Amino acid sequence: MVYQRSSALFAEARKYIPGGVNSPVRAFKAVGGDPIFVKSAKGAYLYDEDGNKLIDYIASWGPLILGHAYEPVIEAVIEKAKKGTSFGMPTEVETELAKLAVNMVPNIDKIRFVNSGTEACMSAVRLARGYTGKDKIIKFAGCYHGHSDSFLIQAGSGAVTFGSPNSPGVTQGTAKDTLLANYNDLESVKELTKANKGAIAAVIIEPIAGNMGCIIPSDGFIKGLRELCTQEGILLIFDEVMTGFRLGKGGAQEALGIDADIVTFGKVIGGGLPVGAFAAKDVIMDHLAPDGPVYQAGTLSGNPLAMSAGLAMLTELEANPKVFKSLADKTAYLHKGMEEVLVKNGVPHQINRYGSMMSVHFTDEPVVDFASSAKGNNDTFKKYFHGMLRGGVYLPPSAFESYFLNDALTYGDLDFTIKALDNIVDELK
Ligand code: KE4
Description:
seven-stranded mixed beta sheet, four-stranded mixed beta sheet, 15 helices, 14 strands, 39% helix, binds ligand KE4
């Protein structure tokens, strides 16, 4: 694989964009080397600026669950664009997407659209604070809810990669209202609720975590969290930016059979265009401006292009729910094939998988939280990442990320991926 044009484009980008990227994880800091610049994509394949074809396992970090440039989404956006791109006025398509989302997701009456997962989670926390009249929130080490100040406390994803769990610029005043618990450790939450009686507005959690790699909740953890929040009068926020419309029509609430008080969305709900959202029952959502006192706004929130992409995407998923099982089966197949190669070659590893999310960790200890995820051997991970890239497979460029499979992947692509691992496994020993 040759990457001359990507490297040249990266050098040029660095002159005008901080770090040459508009989101840090893209810069390959965790794995070294220059990032790959993509020219186009279709289905399960990326075509980079040097003419290389790559099998894609990030799907733009989740949104492109049906593959790149999915015809119905593209058509919807083109048709809508011909009628104008944004008006700053209400449009029918916003209601169409809202109605569909509310019908697909359990336990929500209304949904507000924003432009990113960060905005969705930030707004959900403000709503929880406004609704309860309390200031503090609990988040979990390694979970990532976007880059709003309240969340950049032992955050996951890129924030971990940069070893700056508490980003400069986040004031002590803000940080004091964010309490930190450990994933899969209900006791750590109970201790915080005891020490901050009556002061906690919400617990926010990734119900299946994807920003420490993929971390699955242990039996009873989320249920215990639900019971504790109910007992303490604390709102439970499911950050479903990754899991929403990926695990199934009803996301993690449906998969786990547990009701959250507020749910946030992103990624798939926008079909590849910038959409975030947060949703809850009327009793909570009616606290939002303009009907209620909790302020939240956005110039491009609900813009017709993004709404039409999201509507086309969710319409497809609603009409073909078999895709979720197809994706889960493909992910299980990939897991099994990669596992066999790593076991046969004696490479210490853990593979975590839930639905169409999975991650590979080079450690012999089960990966169940941020601390155990951080024990993965990053040198081995770098060799793995670059070896697979040389073999034509594009994986997340960080061990603190999840794979996001798309349903355009064929079993031939999965076999190709497993073979690519077999070709480089000696480097991992
Ligand atoms: P955005 O603001 O990036 O749309 O969403 C923030 C967010 C919130 N909640 C969860 C569970 C998320 O995973 C994310 C964003 N995910 C990362 C991938 N780990 C986005 C990739 C990036 O930062 O470039």
